[in-house]
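dumping this here before i forget
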Amino acid sequence: MFKMTALALALATAMVGSAFAGDQYVDKTGFAVSGYDVVSYFDLPQSKVGQPQQQPLPGQASVTADYKGATFAFATEANRDRFLADPAAFVPQYDGHCAYGVAKGGKVPGNPTLWRIVDGKLYLNITKNVVGFWEEDISGNLKKSEKNWGGLEPQAASSDKIPSFTSAAPVSN
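structure:
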């Protein structure tokens, strides 16, 4: 299902880690992270492993910034300003793809409501079941993800059917 092309393999050999993988994943909302405010994740308390996380704030369509080929929406101008000061500190790892999927060698969209911050970095997963698998060995899965990431196809996530989830597309003003 997740084939590496010869070009991707050649490029992966020449490049290291997260230096290569493609643009930020954008879903049908037209926004990265389904329009959730990526800064808001860092202001929420983290739940214990095995417990669901709180919901991040939905962004507003009128408060946005572009980064890595995608438009990010923010709940407030203050959050947008924090983002603009250091975008890489806030964007989800693996360009918004599922961290466990990357550990397994593929690119599938991350669900922005299934998240965890590890060592100051935001990671998304695709389903509640996948969160369980990922959380069984977060550090081991992150090692696998980092090893795999540079060798994955640069195109955005697979167009294969994925489980649906509720999106919080930005609120229009």
